[in-house]
Amino acid sequence: MTSFEPEFIVPQAPQRPAPSAPTQRQDDPPPEPEVVATEPDVTTEPDGPESPVVVEEAAAPVADAPSLPPLLLREELPPVVDTDEAYARTCAAIASGRGPVAIDAERASGYRYSQRAYLVQLRRVGSGTHLVDPVPFDDLRALDDAIGDEEWILHAATQDLPCLTEAGMRPRALFDTELAGRLLNLPRVGLATLVELYLGHSLAKEHSAADWSTRPLPEPWLVYAALDVEVLVELRDLLEADLEKAGKLDWAHQEFEALLSFTGPPPKTDRWRRTSGMHRIRGRRNLALVRELWETRDEIAERRDTTPGRVLTDAAIVEMATVAPTDADQLKGLRTMRGRGARRHLNEWQRAIDTALALPEEDLPRSSVRGDGPPPPRAWAEKHPDAADRLGRCREVVVALAEQHDLPAENLISPGAVRELAWEPPADLSAESVGAVLASKGARPWQVELVSAPLSTALRA
Q1: What would the mean pLDDT of 46-70 be, rounded to a whole number?
Q2: For the segment 163-198, what is each residue's pLDDT rounded down to a tens digit?
Q3: Bridge-partner residues for 40, per DSSP?
Q4: What three-state secondary structure class fits 202?
Q5: Contact criterion met (CB below 8 Å) for 95 and 143
């Protein structure tokens, strides 16, 4: 894309690495932190293809590094667009701007069941920054029409594309600054880190986990949201220049093109098996209790539009499933049921328990479930030594190629695709056949070109 002159002069940035050559609702309890099980869960599904969703990391302070000036708004904070008249003016302003459009969205993860957008931020040269509240409108299709075929600039696009699609917005072209940083093999690719590295400003991220369904939104939150698109246009141009110097710009274009069809990670089956503490559950009847309680909790959370953990904790599900109380008095006596929030749906928990206890043996869930893909690689060496040997050789090839081309190995080729290839290689081990298999699993042409021949050699060994 042709670069255009930015609206302001960017301060001198610190020297960056040279690229390589070629508000909580009153009736809800406070949110509990998510607990991640540290013990292996034998009931969890085997490893499958990696989800493309990326969680942005927080910027890590550098010891003894000079403090950087904070990023500030160049203009007065715009009002939130929440009326038909203001929305029409915003659409007209975006349509009259020039160049790509920086876009971000804020959700209420951790507070709401849905992943809808509760604020959409946009910035375009000649148009300025706009903060749109999607809640009062049926959709944002008029805004999408105003952008038209212009390029979207997003950071970690897979996080925002699903909720923007739900609101009626879909890019025809995009540039992902987070993914660009990964292709440049930068050690950290969070937005705050990239702003520090390329633009010489610090960017606070203290409101990233806020409840964006709160109304009205506090002004400090709105400033935070506006800053997320303040310099995306300038950052995009600097990253593009580095990609071109590194000979990776075509790779980036292919990656961005692939993102245009992204609508979210594939739905997981038997999600109840990922309940924290499942390693404590023994027996199929107790698994049925977990399943019924989990599904009941999920229905309530969807009905109330709140996160499941705010309805009932995983610890409470595991305790109920372990004890299997037979009446309401025994249920109320459980340690995890002492809070008002857990008792709010006491009758529904008891019905779920009664349902699970009454299930015939043939309807009980199995202790473990095989997924569609290969089993976890940790089991290969003992039961499938040939596949384990192939996987080891393929992994060595990928690591060497990633180092050669200055890429993270997972961006060179999907680890899930490599596992599937090693587990069930094609009968014809030519580079063309291996490349066709990888392409069928979503590998882009540039990835196929780099890895198909070396992986073919590794498989034939």
Answers
A1: 53
A2: 999 999 999 999 999 999 999 999 999 999 999 999
A3: none
A4: strand
A5: no
CB 111 within 8 Å of CB 307: yes
Q: Which residue has the tokens 């509240």?
A: 133
Angstrom CA distances, 232 to 179, 308, 326, 429, stand at 13, 34, 58, 44
In this structure, the number of other CB atoms found within 10 A of the CB of residue 148 comes to: 10
Phi, psi of 195 (to 5 degrees): -65, -40
pLDDT band for 17, please (50, 70, 90 cuts).
low
Q: Tell whether the model's pLDDT for residue 311 goes beyond 50.
A: yes
Which pLDDT score is estimated for 297? 97
Rounded CA gap, 155 and 181, in Å?
10
Sequence-separated (6 or more) residues with CB below 8 Å from residue 275: 290, 294, 314, 317, 318
- What mean pLDDT comes out for the span 289-294? 98
Closest CA to 459 of 415, 406, 407, 419: 419
Which CATH architecture group holds 80-259?
2-Layer Sandwich (3.30)
CATH superfamily of 271-363: HRDC domain (1.10.150.80)
Strands 119-125 and 128-132: antiparallel
Q: Identify the band that residue 65 occupies on the pLDDT scale cut at 50, 70 and 90.
A: low
Cα 407 → chain centroid: 20
Q: What is the fold, at CATH topology level, of the domain defined by 377-460?
A: DNA polymerase; domain 1 (1.10.150)
As a whole number of angstroms, the distance between CA 421 and CA 326 comes to: 49
Using CA atoms, how far apart are residues 106 and 207, in angstroms rounded to an integer? Answer: 10
Burial 277-316 (b: 16+ CB within 10 A, else e): bbeebeeebbbbbbbbbbebbbebbeebebbbbbbbbbbb
Helix (H, G, I), strand (E, B) or coil at 80: strand
Residue type at position 214: T
